[in-house]
Amino acid sequence: MTSLLLLLLVTAMFVQVLPLPSVVGATGFGQDTADDVIIFDGMSCNDIKSKPWKEKKRICRKNKEVQSSCPQTCGRFFKKRCPSKITSRIFEKDCSKRYQHNRQCDYDYKYTGCTWDDLQCTSQQGYTCDYDSSSWNLATTIIEQCIDPPKDFPVYETKCTPCSDSKPAKGCPKKEPTIQEECSAYENDLTCAYDFMITGCTQDELQCSPTSYFTCEQEQGWQRIDALYPPCPTECPSTYKSSEFQDDCSEKYEDNRQCNYDYRYTGCTWNELECTSLQGYTCDHDELPTWQHEITSIQECVNPPKGLPVLGDCTPCSDLPAEGCPTKPPTNQEECSDFENGLTCEYQFILTGCTPDDLTCSPISFFTCEQDQLWQQSLASPVRCPRDTQCPEDWPVSQQCAWPEVRDMPYEEAERIIRDSDTEDYVKNIEKIVEGTYVTEDYSLQRVRVFVNNFVENIVVEIPMVG
Fold it and tell me: Which domains are delineated in the chain?
């Protein structure tokens, strides 16, 4: 769930987008199930509730039916905290003397679910106090096996802390207020969060987030705002031929979601080589059909370097860093105390290499967690491939067409050498261009482009060649 939408409610209405995780092992009391029903000695739960403290305690302690039917009334007279470990010997003893009927003590919490939106923190095993047998009953959770779960999905083995352990901030009511309930005892504009659930679409984003907020407005009482968390992105179909692209995408995919396929090498030099999707689909909630098919047109290369794998199949560089690194690149000088000192993480992978065998995905951005617990960024410049100095097949004159000898020279000297070698006066245009500047992709045998580092030093940084 990537972003948060808030909806102000002025009536007792709650909008729940995703199911809340089960609140296992909660320490609160259950509701009385027999408020006005006679259950003991002519008394109902309401009657017992109105009794003096000592008499109420005596009734609750001695009668199991009262304990079972009036858990809210009797809960305060029983032990609230569970044993710290499931191996405690307390679970071998009679539970009815110290714990409420149906009291749950849950342990071994792990993530369950098969999508990010379904993810919950679930107890794998625990005990329940049963008054009929006066003993603890052990229960074990059966985990659903996921088919093709999302990448890096933390199921089965990853431990977690249940959101039921999340409490309101200091100064807030311990129990969630009701809408328009009087709040004069609290600071005006105080906002308190309740009903926490797991949110996040990656392991780094996972956290317990509130689904409801209450703000104290002195004249109107507590006002409720419900948090709506949009669903996590759904993985694209495995092929562009999938029939799913004939369906409405708005219910399953976020607006502007792209699904790209048919990746091929594009570019007319080794330095320009990229892995490009030639066709794909974009989900557009405002159009019909909602999936918009897109095809990329490729420019034909004139005299590409030998071995350049233009339009060959390729795999795009991954955006995911190594395990143990933040999923998204941090910012320079950002705090990194949650990570190992000296850890270096790589980001922004691009295609590099000057031969088919050399092609690889290389990072150009690095972040290292230094001793002062801050991320330090460093950048790498990819090594540029030398230009192919062979003359084009359609080179019409018997003279030099490339000038490797002028590399690293000042521009003025390089221009003089190029003009002196043009014995047939064939070259009509010599262009000086700063490295990295956008240039047109047209091709001309009577033009030489000379790339320099800047207009101050004017040092030639590439081998000039006609084209």
Answer: 163-228 (no CATH), 233-314 (no CATH), 317-385 (no CATH), 404-466 (3.30.10.10)
